[in-house]
């Protein structure tokens, strides 16, 4: 193993990331060193680069740190006292970490753990490098046949989307319809989870024709182009009077408004997208009676375990677009431009 490696790091608050040479870390007691097979890119990486120093410091984030929180790879070395995974084993790393012992963690609500505010790729060194150090062996999840290059996107995009679908599931009885707004990285997974786990009809809404084509290929029963004045009428028609669940992976004013108006009474609207739109209020047709809204950030350990199990058993198609680590800036530019068919993953090995 060489002593240095390339890493794509934030080097100063408010400054763009840089590809730099850093030492390969050594695992200390209880730690695990993972050779990165691939790291998925996420829109939230952009916001980290723009974070003001005061917020970063209040979150206890260290600067500099390597970006990347969707990691699949192989065990490279184990620190003293770690047993379980063996060198060379294919693994995925939990994306949001959690302490495992607080009130929320012990009730299975580990996505609410305050320990998850700092982690690999957000305040600590992440997976956009040849190797990544894992502080807690509990964050290392064994893969059972799944290619670790495909596993990274499941740890955040997949698990977050699964968390949203899981919360909507009790409403998704036979004969009902679920609407997925924004069939991108997260939404394309949501379509597959909905079809794998419930008997619903799925309608996908997206402004990008390539995404709608992929949505149909991944199981959407109907696709609707864009969100405009006609969308609510179209969705009410397609759903026979309203959706039992709308999962919004965009979250701008237009999608929130259309999503809430497309629900049926007692339906549920899940806001996942960080479009920073606002909720118009329940009155004057803003949303149907007895409808509910939920929102959340991140996922729980059980979410990612379920998603990995679905993928390991062949129930999930993982669409990726590969970029080499040397092309990481191009990879982010492609993510920002949109129009991609799969989740962008950066492969250190090229
Ligand atoms: P993505 O770019 O892969 O997908 C977004 C999709 O929405 C694209 O297909 C795009 O064409 C479509 N879209 C954009 N604007 C639209 C509009 N006005 N009408 C219809 N379709 C539109 O992004 P992603 O990685 O899937 O992430 C989706 C969102 O989820 C982002 O806002 C991201 O920040 C957020 N996110 C939230 C969490 C969480 O914990 N809540 C976790 C991860 C990501
Ligand atoms: Zn906790």
Q: Can you put this structure into words, describing what you see?
A:
The chain is 27% helix and 26% strand. The protein is an alpha/beta fold and 350 residues long. The protein has 2 domains: 4-156 and 299-347, Alpha-Beta Complex (Quinone Oxidoreductase, Chain A, domain 1); 159-295, 3-Layer(aba) Sandwich (Rossmann fold). The strands form 4 sheets. Strands 3, 5, 6, 9, 10, 17 and 18 form a 7-stranded mixed β-sheet that branches. Strands 13-12-11-14-15-16 form a 6-stranded parallel β-sheet, with helices on both faces. The protein has a 3-stranded antiparallel β-sheet with strand order 2-1-4, with no helix packed on it. α5 (209-217) links the parallel β12 and β13. The longest helix has 21 residues, at 148-168. The structure holds nicotinamide-adenine-dinucleotide (NAD) and zinc ion. Residues 42-44, 156-157, 160, 182-187, 205-208, 211, 226-227, 249-252, 254-255, 272-275, 297-298, 338 line the site of nicotinamide-adenine-dinucleotide. The site of zinc ion has 8 residues, from loops.
Which SSEs are present, and which pair or pack?
Elements (H helix, E strand, L loop, with lengths): L3 E7 L7 E6 L8 E9 L3 H7 L2 H6 L6 E2 L4 E8 L11 E4 L25 E2 L2 E2 L6 E4 L5 E3 L5 H21 L8 E5 L3 H13 L3 E6 L2 H9 L4 E4 L5 H8 L4 E6 L4 H9 L1 E9 L20 E4 L5 H12 L7 E5 L3 H10 L5 E5 L3
Parallel strand pairs: 7-8, 11-12, 11-14, 12-13, 14-15, 15-16, 17-18
Antiparallel strand pairs: 1-2, 1-4, 3-5, 3-9, 3-18, 5-6, 6-10
The chain binds nicotinamide-adenine-dinucleotide and zinc ion (ZN).
């Amino acid at each position: 193993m060489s002593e240095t490696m390339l890493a794509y790091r934030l080097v100063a608050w408010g400054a763009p990331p840089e590809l730099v040479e850093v030492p390969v870390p050594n695992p200390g007691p209880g730690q695990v060193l993972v050779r990165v097979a691939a790291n998925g890119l996420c829109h939230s990486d952009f916001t980290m680069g723009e974070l003001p120093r005061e917020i970063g410091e209040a979150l206890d984030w260290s600067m500099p740190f390597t970006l990347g929180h969707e990691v699949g790879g192989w065990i490279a070395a184990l620190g003293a006292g770690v047993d379980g995974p063996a060198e060379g084993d294919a693994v995925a790393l939990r994306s949001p970490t959690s302490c495992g012992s607080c009130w929320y963690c012990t009730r299975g609500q580990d996505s609410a753990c305050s320990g998850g505010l700092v982690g690999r790729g957000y305040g600590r060194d992440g997976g956009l490098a040849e190797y990544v150090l894992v502080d807690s062996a509990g964050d290392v999840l064994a893969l059972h046949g799944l290619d670790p290059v495909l596993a990274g996107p499941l740890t955040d995009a997949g698990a977050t989307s699964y968390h949203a679908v899981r919360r909507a599931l009790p409403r998704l009885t036979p004969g009902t319809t679920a609407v997925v707004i924004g069939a991108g990285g997260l939404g394309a997974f949501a379509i597959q989870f909905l079809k794998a786990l419930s008997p619903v009809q799925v309608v996908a809404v997206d402004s990008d024709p390539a995404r709608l084509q992929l949505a149909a290929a991944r199981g959407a029963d109907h696709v609707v182009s864009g969100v405009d004045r006609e969308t609510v009428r179209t969705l009410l028609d397609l759903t026979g009077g309203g959706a039992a669940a709308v999962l919004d992976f965009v979250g701008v004013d237009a999608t929130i408004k259309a999503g809430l108006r497309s629900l049926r009474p007692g339906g549920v609207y899940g806001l996942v997208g960080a479009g920073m739109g606002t909720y118009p209020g329940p009155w004057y047709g803003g949303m149907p009676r007895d409808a509910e809204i939920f929102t959340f950030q991140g996922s729980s350990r059980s979410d990612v375990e379920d998603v990995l199990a679905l993928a390991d058993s062949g129930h999930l198609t993982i669409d990726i677009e590969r970029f080499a680590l040397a092309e990481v800036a191009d990879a982010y530019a492609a993510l920002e431009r949109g129009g991609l068919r799969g989740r962008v993953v950066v492969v250190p090995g090229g």
